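Question thread 4412

I'm putting together a teaching handout and wanted feedback from people who do this every day. The idea is simple: show students a protein as raw sequence, then show them the structure tokens that encode its fold, then repeat with a second protein so they can compare. Below is the first pair exactly as I plan to print it.
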Amino acid sequence: MNSSYITEEPLRGIISIEFASEELQEAVDKKIKNISHTIDLPGFRKGKVPKGIIEKRFGEAIRYETASEKAQDEMQRLYIENNLNSITAPIREEFALGEEGKYEFKYIFPLTPEMKVSIDKDIEVPFYNVEPTDEDVDNASKQILDANGEEVNVEKSEAPGDMFTGKLVELDTEGNPLENGIVKEHAFLAPKYFRNEEQKKAFDGVAVGNVIRFNPYIAFDKMGAILKNTLGIESNEEALEHQGDFEFTVETIRHYEPAKLGEHFYKKYFGEDTGIKDEEAYRKELRARIKKELDNEAKHFFRQHLIELLLEKVGKPEFDRETVKRVIEVNASQDRKDKAPLTDAELNNEVKRFADFLYYRELISGLVDEYKLEISEEKVEEKIEAQIIGEIQRMGYPVNGMEPIIEQLVQQRKEDKDRLYQARNAVAEDEIGAFAFDLVTRKEETITPDEFQKKIDEFQKKQMDKVGVNNVLDEEEDAQSEASENAEA
């Protein structure tokens, strides 16, 4: 057997393997012997088919399989021996039977570009100390109290969001109950979802026992699905036929009452053992929570800036785009079995997207390896749990008592490959950010949450603009390249 490994521009690894058919004979004979015990052909007893018959019927397929296995083993040996780091799995060119019965294989690897960069004081990264305002505490408190309130029966409507039950009766043009018209007992109405403001106003300040005349057809802006449920009719089309007024006699009014501050609420929200006893301590705790979340966001924003600066510093090293394009094209054809193949423009766009992902991936993994940062499964799980708790708290709900649900959500997300990958990346970015925090030059500034949000919006707009500019430049480059190729042709 002869095998070799070479590289060619741009960053393409090639493994070539050649061996004579005689080198396969021992392995082929062994395979034939193994299958002879199980093969079943007409005219022969099972396991008694002569070797010559098997060779004639299946010999070519067996030699193909054996040659592929032999080449695969040798390719893997050379891959490990040369310490290769490829972007994708290898592309195997179809084998050929050469002169004098020699098998020839070729494997092509798009090699990973080197993206080494140092973290030092030459890198200037903005860092914002974000201080919550009294208004932020007020808004957080309102969200928490709203989320932890309860519905109560009231005698008179107190807010636009109140919900009503009552008797719904269809009227004729004279305002009398329509003969054979719709009558629905215990109908449910939520005027806040009406699409017509005049119809909403008809329910302002009403009390139990009041009779309101309104038009559901107008109130719901001719939306058959909602009318069907409101009127208790089987089809949207039939519901849309009822375009006149209805009479609604109010039986109950349900009003949502936000939670009220006090010892009962503090224990419910913070736990029975809470030391919070009054509004001052409650607001202090809210401010501390908001500050903690803002600090986490500030660190995340610091990491975003840092990684962006490192990506700019390392540049965009070239790699074997043609081989990557072939891999993407093959994968796309498998995923789009019933669709047309990717166009050249779509394929080029996929390669560019992959390049951005590649540069990010290699930068992050390179930094983790170079600085020996730890990305443990324990840290990944803690990251997922922290994300879930943050989501719950942002909605205003208490975390106290939800530990079993949180644990269940953590396990679900760990089983989701995409979420798990994102969590690992987030941990890697955390570790890089923490490691670099005191090594780079930080440009610190104390700002309000509103000012901080503007900084984030500006950064994201800059990123989007950069993507847009790059796309335009890439399109111009593609057009110029195509024009050049046409001219040469």
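The second pair follows. I'd like the answer to focus on this one:
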Amino acid sequence: MNEQEVYYTIALTRMTGFNFQTALQLYRELGGGLAVYEHRNDIKDVIPDCSTRLAESLKDWEMPLIRAAQEMEFITKHGIRPLLMGSEAYPQRLAECPDAPILLYYMGNADLNRRRVINIIGTRHSTAYGQDLIRHFVADMKQQCPEVLIVSGLAYGIDICAHRQALANSLDTVGVLAHGLDEIYPSSHRDTAMQMLKQGGLLTEYMSETKADRLNFVKRNRIVAGIADATILVESAAKGGGLITTRIAMDYNRSVFAFPGAVGAPYSEGCNNLIRDNGAALLTCANDFINAMGWQTDAQLQQAQAQGIERNLFPNLTPEEQTIAHILDEMGDFSLNQLSVKANIPIGQLTAVLFQMEMKGVVRALAGGTYHLLK
């Protein structure tokens, strides 16, 4: 951990408040929180389109640095990992989003860049119907995609049911919080949260002493949406937080699915409307989801491994194709730009290589300019 960079980045988040785009622009254009601090008196020279008001506000770092020092002491004492934008441990799917946090706080042992990541969300007023859907869906995912990471928001209803079913099926699960890691909200979910630290984790963009305000829950939904390959809505009223997350996921070019419910059922109305309006693909079981995502081969690989069969994943590939295949295998779906950086191949050349790999049936281009490994 680069403690100095973390220190100045924490301070930067205090100075920009929750103007995510501003913080991200400063962080990316100058190369980090420390660089912003070093240019605090000449921001407009290095970023000419920076507003005068912002430039002036970035000159006084005294109080933000005091608060950052306090937070550094807190995260060190409690074993919290700060994840800086651009670091290897930072969730790469989220990094592609235009309003991604420049810093996350994480406790847990799950890899946030797991090859398969989904979120399961819905109403806080879940019914027996919704709980049964989650129970069967997660159990089937365990059998067919045993390495999947399940993300949700640790809230009442669908969220906590998804976390608990993941734990029951020995799947890692991560809760994205709308407050600091110095508390658990709701407190009744503390025992589950403690289990998740050993089989998943807890993630937030908020510093300690940040309370679970209503607006924070809306803001954290973008992390839930952006960190995953797909969003799965289980139950929702005609209006609700789950629908906000699905809209964000669509904006991020993520796949969105919803379970239908009975006509007139109050907590299926949101799902039914979303499916009707083509905002989500209809889901009835894990097989529907796996087929739609092209993840069928996970079950085949699991069966082959159980039988002790060695498998050559990438036959008849050139060295460059092998490199790309291994990156996608280890890191999950990547954009063209990410692949270019990771593989150290110019984009013009990379485009031709990916075309050949598509012809060989090794990769598939997805919406949003990302590439998916077919195995």
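Top answer:
Good format. For the second protein you could add a caption like this: The first strand starts at residue 81 and ends at 84. The chain has 18 helices and twelve strands.
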